[in-house]
Design goal:
alpha/beta, 38% helix
Length: 154
């Protein structure tokens, strides 16, 4: 079977809502609309680790961007991103395309436009000369949102 050679970086909780804090889950397991959209596009998934889960565990409090914005948390994000960067570089060396990043709107970590984890991912990729051209995210509301390179996924 032929491969698309197109890879989508995906926030962990889009494929596993079981890591989301209590009362914030949007689905029982994976967010089906996002999975179906990516499959229709022919994208393979590179699932990112959940930084909040790996930092504070499943039974963690709801926290803001400012509360996560600490040197310890940023260091943790960089540590868990090392294997992701290695995989992305290997895909690129083998003529794959990283088509973009799918995150979660308003997440203090995984909002592609303002999330601690995404800021560290972007910085680490930039240090290696990798630019993510397209960013998508799942919104908190049913209203469509579009801003520059950020695309809304229903």
């Amino acid at each position: 079977m032929q491969r698309s050679k197109k890879i989508l970086l995906v926030s962990h909780c889009i494929l596993n809502q079981n890591t989301v804090i209590e009362d914030e889950a949007r689905a029982e397991g994976a967010v089906l609309s996002a999975v179906q959209w990516a499959m229709k596009e022919g994208y393979g998934f590179l699932q990112l680790p959940c930084p909040e889960f790996t930092f504070l565990g499943l039974d963690r409090p709801s926290m803001t961007y400012e509360q996560y914005d600490t040197p310890e948390y940023r260091k943790h994000c960089r540590e868990i991103l090392k294997p992701v960067l290695f995989q992305a570089e290997d895909y690129l060396k083998n003529d794959y395309e990283i088509v973009g990043l799918l995150g979660i709107q308003s997440s203090p970590s995984c909002d592609p436009t303002r999330g601690i984890f995404m800021e560290e991912l972007d910085a680490m990729f930039a240090e290696q000369g990798i630019t993510l051209k397209t960013l998508w995210y799942l919104p908190n509301t049913s209203e469509p949102f579009f801003k520059s390179d950020v695309h809304f996924i229903k």
